[in-house]
Amino acid sequence: MAKLYINAGKKEGHINKEIQGHFSEHLGRCIYEGIYVGENSPIKNTNGMRDDVVAALKELEIPVLRWPGGCFADEYHWKDGIGPKETRKRMVNTHWGGVVEDNSFGTHEYMELCRQLGCKTYINGNVGSGTVQEMSEWVEYMTFKGISPMADLRAKNGHPDPWKIDYFGVGNENWGCGGNMTPEFYANEYRRYQTYVRNYGKKKKNAHKIQKICCGANVDDYYWTKGVLKTAFYHCPKGTHGFMDGLSLHYYVHPLGWKKKGSATDFDDKVWYMTMWKALYIEELIKRHGAIMDQYDPKKKVGMIIDEWGSWYTVEPGTNPGFLYQQNTMRDALIAGVSLNIFNKHCDRVKMANIAQIVNVLQAVILTEGEKMLLTPTYHVFHMYKCHQDAELVESSIVTEEIGLEKKYMIPNLNESASIGTDGKLHITLNNLSITEDYPIDAEIIDFDTTKVSAEILTNEMHAMNTFDAPETVKPSVFDKIETGNGRLKFTIPACSVMSITVG
Ligand code: AHR
Protein backbone atom coordinates (compact mmCIF):
# COMPACT_ATOMS: atom_id res chain seq x y z
CA MET A 1 0.00 0.00 0.00
CA ALA A 2 1.60 3.32 -1.07
CA LYS A 3 1.25 6.05 1.55
CA LEU A 4 0.24 9.46 0.27
CA TYR A 5 0.39 12.29 2.78
CA ILE A 6 -1.22 15.68 2.31
CA ASN A 7 -1.26 18.51 4.80
CA ALA A 8 -3.82 20.92 3.40
CA GLY A 9 -3.08 23.37 6.21
CA LYS A 10 0.54 23.83 5.14
CA LYS A 11 0.63 26.22 2.20
CA GLU A 12 3.91 26.12 0.31
CA GLY A 13 3.52 28.77 -2.37
CA HIS A 14 1.40 30.20 -5.11
CA ILE A 15 1.12 28.25 -8.37
CA ASN A 16 1.16 30.89 -11.10
CA LYS A 17 -1.40 29.96 -13.70
CA GLU A 18 1.26 30.73 -16.34
CA ILE A 19 2.89 27.41 -15.39
CA GLN A 20 0.30 25.93 -17.74
CA GLY A 21 1.28 28.25 -20.59
CA HIS A 22 1.70 27.47 -24.28
CA PHE A 23 4.03 28.28 -27.14
CA SER A 24 3.27 28.97 -30.80
CA GLU A 25 5.79 29.45 -33.57
CA HIS A 26 5.79 30.07 -37.30
CA LEU A 27 6.80 26.47 -37.72
CA GLY A 28 5.12 23.80 -39.84
CA ARG A 29 1.34 23.81 -39.39
CA CYS A 30 1.26 25.47 -35.98
CA ILE A 31 0.14 28.98 -36.89
CA TYR A 32 -0.95 28.49 -40.49
CA GLU A 33 -3.69 25.84 -40.72
CA GLY A 34 -3.44 24.90 -37.04
CA ILE A 35 -4.68 28.22 -35.69
CA TYR A 36 -4.99 30.73 -38.50
CA VAL A 37 -6.80 29.86 -41.72
CA GLY A 38 -7.67 33.37 -42.89
CA GLU A 39 -11.06 35.04 -43.17
CA ASN A 40 -11.84 33.44 -46.54
CA SER A 41 -11.25 29.84 -45.48
CA PRO A 42 -14.07 27.29 -45.77
CA ILE A 43 -13.03 26.25 -42.23
CA LYS A 44 -15.25 28.09 -39.76
CA ASN A 45 -13.30 31.01 -38.35
CA THR A 46 -13.57 34.32 -36.59
CA ASN A 47 -11.27 36.97 -38.02
CA GLY A 48 -9.21 34.15 -39.52
CA MET A 49 -8.80 32.05 -36.34
CA ARG A 50 -10.23 28.52 -36.44
CA ASP A 51 -13.34 28.42 -34.26
CA ASP A 52 -12.86 24.75 -33.30
CA VAL A 53 -9.27 25.25 -32.12
CA VAL A 54 -10.03 28.47 -30.26
CA ALA A 55 -13.01 26.84 -28.50
CA ALA A 56 -10.88 23.86 -27.41
CA LEU A 57 -8.12 26.14 -26.11
CA LYS A 58 -10.62 28.33 -24.26
CA GLU A 59 -11.91 25.22 -22.56
CA LEU A 60 -8.33 24.66 -21.32
CA GLU A 61 -8.26 28.25 -20.04
CA ILE A 62 -4.81 28.69 -21.47
CA PRO A 63 -3.19 31.44 -19.40
CA VAL A 64 -0.50 32.73 -21.76
CA LEU A 65 0.73 32.18 -25.33
CA ARG A 66 4.32 32.75 -26.44
CA TRP A 67 4.89 33.93 -30.05
CA PRO A 68 6.43 34.19 -32.74
CA GLY A 69 9.20 31.70 -31.81
CA GLY A 70 11.53 29.95 -31.00
CA CYS A 71 14.31 30.16 -33.51
CA PHE A 72 11.92 31.98 -35.82
CA ALA A 73 11.84 34.91 -33.39
CA ASP A 74 15.47 35.83 -34.01
CA GLU A 75 14.81 35.97 -37.76
CA TYR A 76 11.47 37.74 -37.50
CA HIS A 77 11.16 41.36 -38.54
CA TRP A 78 7.85 42.54 -37.20
CA LYS A 79 7.28 45.27 -39.77
CA ASP A 80 6.94 42.51 -42.41
CA GLY A 81 3.77 41.39 -40.65
CA ILE A 82 1.73 44.60 -40.43
CA GLY A 83 -0.37 46.63 -42.88
CA PRO A 84 -2.53 45.41 -45.74
CA LYS A 85 -2.05 41.66 -46.22
CA GLU A 86 -1.60 41.92 -49.99
CA THR A 87 1.47 44.12 -49.52
CA ARG A 88 3.10 42.07 -46.76
CA LYS A 89 6.44 40.57 -47.62
CA ARG A 90 6.48 36.99 -48.89
CA MET A 91 9.64 35.21 -47.83
CA VAL A 92 11.10 31.81 -47.13
CA ASN A 93 11.00 30.40 -43.63
CA THR A 94 14.62 29.35 -43.79
CA HIS A 95 14.69 27.78 -40.38
CA TRP A 96 11.59 25.62 -40.63
CA GLY A 97 10.99 23.62 -43.77
CA GLY A 98 11.92 26.26 -46.36
CA VAL A 99 8.27 27.08 -47.04
CA VAL A 100 6.82 30.43 -48.08
CA GLU A 101 5.92 32.70 -45.17
CA ASP A 102 3.45 35.29 -46.40
CA ASN A 103 3.33 37.18 -43.11
CA SER A 104 -0.46 37.11 -43.09
CA PHE A 105 -0.29 36.33 -39.38
CA GLY A 106 1.51 39.21 -37.67
CA THR A 107 1.21 41.40 -34.60
CA HIS A 108 -2.46 42.37 -35.10
CA GLU A 109 -3.46 38.76 -35.71
CA TYR A 110 -1.54 37.52 -32.65
CA MET A 111 -3.21 40.13 -30.46
CA GLU A 112 -6.61 39.18 -31.90
CA LEU A 113 -5.89 35.51 -31.12
CA CYS A 114 -5.01 36.35 -27.51
CA ARG A 115 -8.16 38.45 -27.27
CA GLN A 116 -10.27 35.52 -28.45
CA LEU A 117 -8.48 33.15 -26.05
CA GLY A 118 -8.60 35.60 -23.16
CA CYS A 119 -4.95 34.83 -22.40
CA LYS A 120 -1.87 36.87 -21.51
CA THR A 121 0.60 37.92 -24.19
CA TYR A 122 4.21 36.79 -24.40
CA ILE A 123 6.13 38.27 -27.33
CA ASN A 124 9.64 37.08 -28.11
CA GLY A 125 11.85 39.80 -29.62
CA ASN A 126 14.70 39.50 -32.11
CA VAL A 127 18.23 39.96 -30.76
CA GLY A 128 20.04 37.58 -33.13
CA SER A 129 19.38 39.42 -36.39
CA GLY A 130 17.44 42.48 -35.28
CA THR A 131 18.42 45.88 -33.96
CA VAL A 132 17.75 47.66 -30.71
CA GLN A 133 15.73 50.20 -32.69
CA GLU A 134 13.57 47.47 -34.25
CA MET A 135 12.82 45.93 -30.88
CA SER A 136 12.16 49.25 -29.24
CA GLU A 137 9.82 50.34 -32.05
CA TRP A 138 7.89 47.07 -31.80
CA VAL A 139 7.23 47.72 -28.13
CA GLU A 140 6.23 51.31 -28.96
CA TYR A 141 3.96 50.06 -31.76
CA MET A 142 2.18 47.65 -29.46
CA THR A 143 1.91 49.64 -26.27
CA PHE A 144 2.31 53.40 -26.73
CA LYS A 145 -0.81 55.42 -26.07
CA GLY A 146 -0.78 58.91 -27.56
CA ILE A 147 1.02 60.54 -30.44
CA SER A 148 4.20 58.83 -31.62
CA PRO A 149 5.44 57.52 -34.96
CA MET A 150 4.71 53.89 -34.07
CA ALA A 151 1.39 54.58 -32.33
CA ASP A 152 0.34 56.54 -35.42
CA LEU A 153 1.34 53.64 -37.65
CA ARG A 154 -0.68 51.24 -35.50
CA ALA A 155 -3.71 53.51 -35.78
CA LYS A 156 -3.22 53.73 -39.56
CA ASN A 157 -3.26 49.92 -39.59
CA GLY A 158 -6.63 49.88 -37.88
CA HIS A 159 -5.85 49.69 -34.17
CA PRO A 160 -5.77 53.09 -32.46
CA ASP A 161 -5.80 51.58 -28.97
CA PRO A 162 -2.60 50.10 -27.59
CA TRP A 163 -2.40 46.47 -26.56
CA LYS A 164 -0.84 45.04 -23.44
CA ILE A 165 2.41 43.05 -23.47
CA ASP A 166 2.56 40.87 -20.38
CA TYR A 167 5.90 39.19 -21.07
CA PHE A 168 8.66 40.14 -23.49
CA GLY A 169 11.52 37.76 -24.31
CA VAL A 170 14.76 39.52 -25.22
CA GLY A 171 16.00 36.95 -27.73
CA ASN A 172 15.61 33.18 -27.86
CA GLU A 173 18.29 30.50 -27.54
CA ASN A 174 21.00 33.09 -28.11
CA TRP A 175 23.55 30.41 -27.26
CA GLY A 176 22.43 28.69 -30.50
CA CYS A 177 19.99 29.66 -33.26
CA GLY A 178 19.64 33.14 -31.73
CA GLY A 179 23.18 34.23 -32.65
CA ASN A 180 25.61 31.61 -31.24
CA MET A 181 26.69 34.02 -28.50
CA THR A 182 28.77 33.47 -25.41
CA PRO A 183 27.02 34.05 -22.06
CA GLU A 184 28.92 37.27 -21.37
CA PHE A 185 28.34 38.68 -24.85
CA TYR A 186 24.64 37.86 -24.73
CA ALA A 187 24.23 39.28 -21.24
CA ASN A 188 25.73 42.58 -22.38
CA GLU A 189 23.39 42.59 -25.36
CA TYR A 190 20.55 41.76 -23.00
CA ARG A 191 21.39 44.75 -20.80
CA ARG A 192 21.39 47.02 -23.84
CA TYR A 193 18.27 45.71 -25.62
CA GLN A 194 16.12 45.51 -22.50
CA THR A 195 16.84 49.18 -21.74
CA TYR A 196 14.62 50.08 -24.68
CA VAL A 197 11.82 47.66 -23.86
CA ARG A 198 10.04 50.57 -22.24
CA ASN A 199 7.09 50.66 -19.93
CA TYR A 200 5.17 53.60 -21.31
CA GLY A 201 3.12 55.45 -18.76
CA LYS A 202 4.82 53.61 -15.91
CA LYS A 203 4.77 56.63 -13.66
CA LYS A 204 1.02 56.21 -13.21
CA LYS A 205 -0.01 54.33 -10.09
CA ASN A 206 -0.56 50.60 -10.76
CA ALA A 207 0.66 51.03 -14.33
CA HIS A 208 1.10 47.79 -16.23
CA LYS A 209 4.70 46.61 -16.34
CA ILE A 210 6.16 44.37 -19.03
CA GLN A 211 7.89 41.34 -17.52
CA LYS A 212 11.26 41.06 -19.25
CA ILE A 213 12.61 37.58 -19.91
CA CYS A 214 16.34 37.04 -20.34
CA CYS A 215 17.52 34.07 -22.40
CA GLY A 216 18.59 31.26 -20.11
CA ALA A 217 20.22 27.92 -20.64
CA ASN A 218 19.66 24.83 -22.67
CA VAL A 219 19.27 21.72 -20.52
CA ASP A 220 22.26 21.43 -18.16
CA ASP A 221 24.36 24.34 -19.43
CA TYR A 222 25.10 25.72 -15.98
CA TYR A 223 28.03 27.64 -17.41
CA TRP A 224 25.55 29.74 -19.39
CA THR A 225 23.39 30.45 -16.34
CA LYS A 226 26.40 31.52 -14.27
CA GLY A 227 27.90 33.65 -17.04
CA VAL A 228 24.66 35.43 -17.92
CA LEU A 229 23.74 36.18 -14.32
CA LYS A 230 27.24 37.37 -13.41
CA THR A 231 27.22 39.92 -16.25
CA ALA A 232 23.56 40.90 -15.93
CA PHE A 233 23.81 41.48 -12.18
CA TYR A 234 27.14 43.34 -12.44
CA HIS A 235 26.55 46.77 -10.92
CA CYS A 236 22.86 46.65 -11.67
CA PRO A 237 20.92 49.26 -9.71
CA LYS A 238 19.33 48.03 -6.49
CA GLY A 239 15.96 46.42 -7.08
CA THR A 240 16.49 45.74 -10.77
CA HIS A 241 17.51 42.08 -10.29
CA GLY A 242 19.89 41.99 -13.23
CA PHE A 243 17.37 43.99 -15.26
CA MET A 244 15.15 40.92 -15.60
CA ASP A 245 11.90 39.48 -14.33
CA GLY A 246 12.53 36.03 -15.69
CA LEU A 247 15.29 33.76 -16.92
CA SER A 248 14.34 31.05 -19.38
CA LEU A 249 15.24 27.36 -19.48
CA HIS A 250 14.66 25.00 -22.40
CA TYR A 251 14.43 21.26 -22.00
CA TYR A 252 13.09 18.66 -24.41
CA VAL A 253 12.70 14.93 -23.82
CA HIS A 254 14.34 13.00 -26.69
CA PRO A 255 13.98 9.33 -25.73
CA LEU A 256 16.96 8.16 -27.82
CA GLY A 257 18.99 11.36 -27.59
CA TRP A 258 19.09 14.54 -29.65
CA LYS A 259 20.28 12.88 -32.88
CA LYS A 260 18.11 9.77 -33.05
CA LYS A 261 15.15 11.08 -31.04
CA GLY A 262 12.93 7.99 -31.51
CA SER A 263 9.44 7.28 -32.83
CA ALA A 264 6.44 8.98 -31.24
CA THR A 265 4.33 5.85 -31.46
CA ASP A 266 6.58 2.82 -31.86
CA PHE A 267 8.54 2.24 -28.66
CA ASP A 268 9.13 -0.66 -26.30
CA ASP A 269 9.01 -1.00 -22.52
CA LYS A 270 12.66 -0.04 -22.10
CA VAL A 271 12.16 3.16 -24.07
CA TRP A 272 9.09 3.93 -21.98
CA TYR A 273 11.12 3.93 -18.75
CA MET A 274 14.00 5.78 -20.37
CA THR A 275 11.53 8.45 -21.50
CA MET A 276 10.02 8.77 -18.04
CA TRP A 277 13.48 9.05 -16.51
CA LYS A 278 14.27 11.88 -18.92
CA ALA A 279 10.98 13.61 -18.16
CA LEU A 280 11.67 13.46 -14.41
CA TYR A 281 15.18 14.83 -14.99
CA ILE A 282 13.67 18.30 -15.37
CA GLU A 283 13.49 18.45 -11.56
CA GLU A 284 17.29 18.21 -11.28
CA LEU A 285 17.61 21.00 -13.86
CA ILE A 286 15.23 23.21 -11.92
CA LYS A 287 17.13 22.60 -8.69
CA ARG A 288 20.60 23.16 -10.11
CA HIS A 289 19.81 26.20 -12.26
CA GLY A 290 17.70 27.42 -9.34
CA ALA A 291 20.67 27.10 -6.97
CA ILE A 292 22.73 29.38 -9.25
CA MET A 293 19.85 31.84 -9.44
CA ASP A 294 19.66 31.80 -5.62
CA GLN A 295 23.23 33.12 -5.44
CA TYR A 296 22.27 36.28 -7.33
CA ASP A 297 18.62 36.47 -6.42
CA PRO A 298 18.09 34.90 -2.98
CA LYS A 299 14.67 36.49 -2.62
CA LYS A 300 13.49 34.77 -5.79
CA LYS A 301 12.39 37.94 -7.55
CA VAL A 302 13.41 36.49 -10.92
CA GLY A 303 11.16 33.73 -12.18
CA MET A 304 12.46 30.60 -13.87
CA ILE A 305 10.58 30.58 -17.16
CA ILE A 306 10.59 27.14 -18.76
CA ASP A 307 9.30 28.49 -22.03
CA GLU A 308 10.05 25.40 -24.10
CA TRP A 309 9.49 21.90 -22.75
CA GLY A 310 7.97 18.61 -23.81
CA SER A 311 8.68 15.58 -25.96
CA TRP A 312 10.53 15.82 -29.26
CA TYR A 313 10.47 12.69 -31.42
CA THR A 314 11.32 11.81 -35.00
CA VAL A 315 8.66 13.39 -37.24
CA GLU A 316 5.69 11.32 -38.41
CA PRO A 317 6.74 9.26 -41.45
CA GLY A 318 6.03 11.06 -44.71
CA THR A 319 5.86 14.54 -43.19
CA ASN A 320 8.24 17.48 -43.80
CA PRO A 321 11.17 17.02 -41.37
CA GLY A 322 11.20 20.79 -40.85
CA PHE A 323 7.59 20.78 -39.62
CA LEU A 324 8.23 18.77 -36.42
CA TYR A 325 4.83 17.09 -36.61
CA GLN A 326 4.48 14.14 -34.21
CA GLN A 327 1.72 11.97 -32.76
CA ASN A 328 0.91 11.95 -29.07
CA THR A 329 0.26 8.87 -26.92
CA MET A 330 -0.30 7.94 -23.29
CA ARG A 331 3.46 8.32 -22.92
CA ASP A 332 3.04 12.04 -23.61
CA ALA A 333 0.19 12.19 -21.12
CA LEU A 334 2.57 10.91 -18.43
CA ILE A 335 5.34 13.32 -19.52
CA ALA A 336 2.87 16.17 -19.13
CA GLY A 337 1.55 14.84 -15.83
CA VAL A 338 4.91 14.51 -14.12
CA SER A 339 6.28 17.77 -15.55
CA LEU A 340 3.30 19.82 -14.37
CA ASN A 341 3.51 18.20 -10.91
CA ILE A 342 7.21 19.07 -10.73
CA PHE A 343 6.55 22.67 -11.79
CA ASN A 344 3.89 22.94 -9.08
CA LYS A 345 6.33 21.67 -6.46
CA HIS A 346 8.88 24.30 -7.50
CA CYS A 347 6.41 27.16 -7.81
CA ASP A 348 8.60 29.31 -5.56
CA ARG A 349 10.99 29.65 -8.53
CA VAL A 350 9.12 28.40 -11.63
CA LYS A 351 6.79 31.22 -12.58
CA MET A 352 5.88 30.24 -16.13
CA ALA A 353 6.25 27.22 -18.42
CA ASN A 354 5.20 26.92 -22.06
CA ILE A 355 4.79 23.51 -23.59
CA ALA A 356 6.11 23.22 -27.14
CA GLN A 357 4.00 23.68 -29.13
CA ILE A 358 0.30 24.38 -29.02
CA VAL A 359 -0.98 22.87 -32.30
CA ASN A 360 0.56 20.39 -34.78
CA VAL A 361 4.16 20.78 -33.56
CA LEU A 362 6.05 18.56 -31.06
CA GLN A 363 4.00 17.76 -27.91
CA ALA A 364 0.89 19.51 -29.16
CA VAL A 365 -2.39 19.60 -27.27
CA ILE A 366 -4.29 19.75 -30.57
CA LEU A 367 -3.70 18.16 -33.98
CA THR A 368 -5.48 19.21 -37.16
CA GLU A 369 -5.85 17.73 -40.62
CA GLY A 370 -7.68 20.04 -43.00
CA GLU A 371 -10.96 20.80 -41.29
CA LYS A 372 -10.59 17.95 -38.78
CA MET A 373 -9.28 18.51 -35.28
CA LEU A 374 -8.46 16.18 -32.41
CA LEU A 375 -7.48 16.58 -28.78
CA THR A 376 -4.34 14.69 -27.79
CA PRO A 377 -3.76 12.82 -24.50
CA THR A 378 -1.60 15.82 -23.47
CA TYR A 379 -4.64 18.09 -23.93
CA HIS A 380 -6.63 15.97 -21.50
CA VAL A 381 -3.87 16.17 -18.88
CA PHE A 382 -3.86 19.97 -19.08
CA HIS A 383 -7.63 19.89 -18.69
CA MET A 384 -7.34 17.67 -15.60
CA TYR A 385 -4.67 19.96 -14.12
CA LYS A 386 -6.33 23.32 -14.75
CA CYS A 387 -7.63 23.17 -11.16
CA HIS A 388 -4.03 24.06 -10.11
CA GLN A 389 -4.04 27.37 -11.98
CA ASP A 390 -3.49 30.18 -9.47
CA ALA A 391 -3.92 27.67 -6.64
CA GLU A 392 -1.93 27.43 -3.40
CA LEU A 393 0.48 24.51 -3.30
CA VAL A 394 0.15 22.43 -0.13
CA GLU A 395 2.57 20.04 1.47
CA SER A 396 2.41 16.55 0.01
CA SER A 397 4.60 13.49 -0.31
CA ILE A 398 4.26 9.91 -1.43
CA VAL A 399 6.20 6.79 -0.53
CA THR A 400 7.42 5.36 -3.81
CA GLU A 401 9.29 2.31 -5.01
CA GLU A 402 11.85 2.15 -7.78
CA ILE A 403 10.72 0.62 -11.03
CA GLY A 404 12.31 0.16 -14.45
CA LEU A 405 14.18 -2.26 -16.66
CA GLU A 406 17.69 -0.79 -16.73
CA LYS A 407 19.85 0.31 -13.82
CA LYS A 408 20.49 3.73 -15.34
CA TYR A 409 16.81 4.47 -15.90
CA MET A 410 15.15 3.42 -12.64
CA ILE A 411 12.32 5.78 -11.66
CA PRO A 412 9.84 6.25 -8.82
CA ASN A 413 6.56 4.51 -9.61
CA LEU A 414 4.32 7.38 -8.48
CA ASN A 415 4.38 11.16 -8.68
CA GLU A 416 2.07 13.71 -7.10
CA SER A 417 1.26 17.31 -6.25
CA ALA A 418 -1.61 18.93 -4.34
CA SER A 419 -3.09 22.39 -4.04
CA ILE A 420 -6.02 24.35 -2.70
CA GLY A 421 -7.68 25.78 -5.79
CA THR A 422 -9.37 29.11 -6.32
CA ASP A 423 -12.61 27.14 -5.75
CA GLY A 424 -11.47 26.39 -2.16
CA LYS A 425 -11.25 22.66 -2.88
CA LEU A 426 -8.28 20.36 -2.44
CA HIS A 427 -6.89 19.09 -5.75
CA ILE A 428 -4.53 16.14 -5.99
CA THR A 429 -2.92 15.10 -9.27
CA LEU A 430 -1.28 11.71 -9.27
CA ASN A 431 0.58 9.68 -11.89
CA ASN A 432 1.32 5.97 -12.07
CA LEU A 433 4.41 5.57 -14.23
CA SER A 434 4.36 1.78 -14.32
CA ILE A 435 3.09 0.20 -17.52
CA THR A 436 2.15 -3.04 -15.77
CA GLU A 437 1.37 -2.50 -12.09
CA ASP A 438 -1.67 -1.03 -10.37
CA TYR A 439 -0.90 0.37 -6.91
CA PRO A 440 -3.20 0.58 -3.88
CA ILE A 441 -2.95 4.03 -2.27
CA ASP A 442 -3.69 5.01 1.29
CA ALA A 443 -3.94 8.80 1.45
CA GLU A 444 -3.86 10.63 4.76
CA ILE A 445 -5.33 14.09 4.43
CA ILE A 446 -4.63 16.54 7.25
CA ASP A 447 -6.68 19.67 7.82
CA PHE A 448 -9.34 19.10 5.19
CA ASP A 449 -12.81 17.56 5.26
CA THR A 450 -12.69 14.42 3.11
CA THR A 451 -16.38 13.55 3.01
CA LYS A 452 -16.90 14.78 -0.54
CA VAL A 453 -14.58 13.34 -3.17
CA SER A 454 -14.70 13.08 -6.94
CA ALA A 455 -12.03 12.06 -9.45
CA GLU A 456 -11.16 11.75 -13.12
CA ILE A 457 -8.71 9.37 -14.71
CA LEU A 458 -6.84 9.16 -18.00
CA THR A 459 -5.60 5.63 -18.52
CA ASN A 460 -4.91 3.29 -21.38
CA GLU A 461 -2.24 1.09 -22.91
CA MET A 462 1.06 3.00 -23.28
CA HIS A 463 0.80 3.34 -27.08
CA ALA A 464 -2.83 4.46 -27.06
CA MET A 465 -3.45 7.67 -29.02
CA ASN A 466 -6.17 9.62 -30.74
CA THR A 467 -6.29 9.60 -34.53
CA PHE A 468 -8.51 11.40 -37.00
CA ASP A 469 -10.38 8.10 -37.54
CA ALA A 470 -10.65 7.34 -33.81
CA PRO A 471 -10.34 10.70 -32.03
CA GLU A 472 -11.68 9.55 -28.66
CA THR A 473 -9.60 6.47 -27.89
CA VAL A 474 -7.86 8.31 -25.06
CA LYS A 475 -10.09 10.52 -22.98
CA PRO A 476 -10.70 11.05 -19.27
CA SER A 477 -13.42 9.17 -17.44
CA VAL A 478 -14.98 9.41 -14.03
CA PHE A 479 -13.15 7.44 -11.35
CA ASP A 480 -15.55 6.52 -8.56
CA LYS A 481 -13.61 3.84 -6.74
CA ILE A 482 -12.36 5.98 -3.86
CA GLU A 483 -13.30 4.99 -0.30
CA THR A 484 -13.34 7.85 2.20
CA GLY A 485 -13.45 8.03 5.98
CA ASN A 486 -11.40 9.20 8.98
CA GLY A 487 -9.46 11.74 6.95
CA ARG A 488 -8.26 9.05 4.55
CA LEU A 489 -8.80 8.16 0.90
CA LYS A 490 -8.26 4.59 -0.25
CA PHE A 491 -8.15 3.54 -3.87
CA THR A 492 -6.05 1.73 -6.46
CA ILE A 493 -4.39 3.70 -9.22
CA PRO A 494 -4.22 1.66 -12.43
CA ALA A 495 -1.00 1.23 -14.41
CA CYS A 496 -0.13 3.96 -16.90
CA SER A 497 -2.51 6.61 -15.68
CA VAL A 498 -2.96 10.22 -14.72
CA MET A 499 -5.52 10.96 -12.04
CA SER A 500 -7.05 14.19 -10.75
CA ILE A 501 -8.86 14.01 -7.41
CA THR A 502 -11.04 16.78 -6.02
CA VAL A 503 -11.80 16.88 -2.32
CA GLY A 504 -14.52 19.21 -1.08
O1 AHR B 1 10.32 24.29 -30.60
C1 AHR B 1 11.18 24.08 -31.66
C2 AHR B 1 12.49 24.81 -31.51
O2 AHR B 1 13.20 24.28 -30.44
C3 AHR B 1 12.41 26.28 -31.19
O3 AHR B 1 12.23 27.07 -32.31
C4 AHR B 1 13.75 26.56 -30.58
O4 AHR B 1 13.72 27.63 -29.67
C5 AHR B 1 14.12 25.23 -29.95
O5 AHR B 1 15.40 24.84 -30.29
Description of the molecule:
The protein is of the alpha/beta class. Helices cover 24% and strands 27% of the residues. It has eleven helices and 26 strands. It has a ten-stranded mixed beta sheet with strand order 23-22-26-20-19-16-1-21-25-24, with helices on one face. The chain has an eight-stranded parallel beta barrel with strand order 2-5-8-9-10-11-12-13, surrounded by six helices. Helix 5 packs across helix 6, helix 8 runs parallel beside helix 10 and helix 10 runs parallel beside helix 11.
Distance between the termini: 24 Å
Report Rg: 23 Å
Strand content is 25-35%
Overall geometry comes to: globular
Oligomer category? single chain
Structural class: alpha/beta
Specify the biggest β-sheet.
Answer: 10 strands, mixed
Order of strands, widest sheet:
23-22-26-20-19-16-1-21-25-24
**How many E strands?**
26
* Low-confidence runs: none
- What small molecules accompany the polymer chains? alpha-L-arabinofuranose
Number of helices: 11
**Helix content class:** 10-25%
Mean pLDDT, to the nearest integer, reads: 97
Please write out the topology:
Elements: E1 2-14, E2 21-23, E3 45-46, E4 49-50, H1 51-60, E5 64-67, E6 91-93, E7 99-101, H2 107-117, E8 120-125, H3 132-143, H4 149-156, E9 167-170, H5 183-195, E10 211-218, H6 222-233, E11 246-253, H7 257-260, H8 269-280, H9 282-296, E12 303-311, H10 330-345, E13 350-356, E14 366-369, E15 372-375, H11 377-385, E16 392-398, E17 402-403, E18 411-412, E19 414-420, E20 426-432, E21 439-446, E22 453-459, E23 477-478, E24 483-485, E25 488-493, E26 497-503
Parallel strand pairs: 1-21, 2-5, 2-13, 5-8, 8-9, 9-10, 10-11, 11-12, 12-13
Antiparallel strand pairs: 1-16, 3-4, 6-7, 14-15, 16-19, 17-18, 19-20, 20-26, 21-25, 22-23, 22-26, 24-25
Helix pairs in contact: 3-4, 5-6, 6-9, 8-10, 10-11
The structure holds alpha-L-arabinofuranose.
Alpha-L-arabinofuranose binds next to loops.
